[in-house]
């Protein structure tokens, strides 16, 4: 199994074919089209899974994390990793970067910045967008409709 200085991580593989997990060693490796997962099953050839087929678990705060991770692997089942800190280091070394959703979950500054952008967008849309849309729609309203509505209201 994996040594302390190795980039390999011990995991349990639930292949969906049996009820018992199988011990495996996994590596997160850098590849031209993004990180990939290599699963070493004792007595079998190494399985290489492209990153697009891995359901990468969400990142967590540096102050604390889960005791174990569950990693979905399309076509292979799932992996249970009991060393999430080692998994995170391997993902970082392989170039896996968190998306905006993960950044908003783990950093207050990103969350507040995204919220401020949303509020600014709504205000700008209300101030400039809605009057413009009203002008565009008003051009296409038939004159007899406009006269009928104005006579009923007044």
Summary keywords:
PH-domain like; alpha+beta; seven-stranded antiparallel beta sheet; single chain; 2 domains
Strands, total number:
7
In percent, how much strand structure appears in the residues?
A: 15-25%
Q: Averaged pLDDT, please?
A: 86
Using only C-alpha atoms, the radius of gyration works out to: 27 Å
Kindly state the percentage of residues in helix: 25-40%
> Based on helices, strands and strand pairing, what is the structural class?
alpha+beta
Residue windows where pLDDT falls under 50 for at least 5 positions: none
The CATH architecture of the largest domain comes to: Roll
Largest sheet, described in full?
A: 7 strands, antiparallel
CATH class of the largest domain: Mainly Beta
Total count of helical runs of at least 4 residues? 4
Q: How are the strands ordered across the major sheet?
A: 4-3-2-1-7-6-5
Using the coordinates shown, work out and report the CATH topology of the largest domain: PH-domain like
Helix and strand element order: EEEEEEEHHHH
Tell me, briefly, the overall form: elongated
